[in-house]
């Protein structure tokens, strides 16, 4: 299976149940790249989250194969007056699909949306310091290392360092393509 065999689309509130199941499976893996899931979310809360993700300055894209979610990538605006030009990025790829170009395809798609969205001037993210494939991918897309957070997470009694990366500016100008238009 190749990344070209997937469909990437904007999530909508009607995706609440399938997205919740996807994230539940991600958290069940207990990867040290994810914090613990603090609580089970209700489908109503997930719908509200997905509605918020469809606002002008945020987007959540889902990667699908045969109508099954295999990845998700979100860009969310920081809702503070002096930081509302900044967005955060988070990405997850399902077990069995990692290392097959899914993350690269989603990141390319999400950054094209961000570059066409004038209010997104800076995108920042945190990645575990030992996640070399993710770090390499982010750097290939123009993210620069800004610093590290030593012992920033503690999971199963083990400390995990995080790296802070950011990408500035837009590379695309003009209209948002139809593939990014919100429903």
Explain what the structure shows.
Helix content is 25%, strand content 32%. The protein is built from 4 helices and 7 strands, in the order βααβββαβαββ. It has a 7-stranded mixed beta sheet with strand order 1-2-3-4-5-7-6, sandwiched between helices. A hairpin with a 2-residue loop joins strand 2 and strand 3. The protein starts with 6 loop residues before the first strand and ends in a 15-residue tail after the last strand.
Keywords:
183 residues; alpha+beta; seven-stranded mixed β-sheet; 7 strands; 32% strand; globular; disordered C terminus
Overall shape: it is globular
List the total number of helices.
4
Give the helix proportion (percent range).
25-40%
Distance between the termini: 29 Å
Q: How many beta-strand runs?
A: 7
Instruction: Give the averaged pLDDT, no decimals.
Output: 86
Portion of residues in beta strands equals 25-35%
List strands and helices in order, with pairings:
Blueprint: E1 7-10, H1 16-28, H2 43-52, E2 59-65, E3 68-77, E4 86-93, H3 102-115, E5 122-128, H4 132-140, E6 144-155, E7 158-168
Parallel strand pairs: 4-5
Antiparallel strand pairs: 1-2, 2-3, 3-4, 5-7, 6-7
Q: What's the quick description here?
A:
With 183 residues, the chain is of the alpha+beta class. It contains 4 helices and 7 strands; from the N terminus they run βααβββαβαββ. Strands 1-2-3-4-5-7-6 form a 7-stranded mixed sheet, with helices on both faces.
């Amino acid at each position: 299976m190749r990344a070209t065999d997937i469909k990437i689309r904007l999530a909508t509130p009607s995706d609440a149940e399938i997205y919740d199941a996807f994230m539940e499976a991600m958290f069940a893996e207990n990867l040290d790249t994810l914090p613990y899931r603090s609580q089970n979310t209700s489908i109503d809360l997930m719908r509200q989250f997905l509605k918020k993700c469809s606002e002008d300055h945020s987007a959540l894209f889902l990667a699908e194969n045969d109508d099954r979610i295999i990845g998700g990538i979100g860009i969310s605006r920081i809702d503070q007056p002096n930081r509302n030009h900044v967005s955060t990025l988070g990405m997850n790829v399902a077990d069995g699909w990692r290392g097959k170009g899914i993350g690269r395809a989603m990141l390319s798609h999400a950054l094209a949306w961000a570059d066409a969205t004038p209010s997104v001037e800076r995108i920042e993210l945190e990645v575990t310091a030992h996640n070399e494939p993710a770090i390499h991918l982010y750097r290939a897309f123009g993210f620069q290392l800004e610093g590290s957070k030593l012992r920033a997470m503690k999971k199963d009694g083990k400390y995990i360092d995080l790296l802070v990366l950011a990408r500035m500016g837009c590379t695309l100008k003009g209209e948002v393509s139809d593939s990014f238009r919100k429903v």
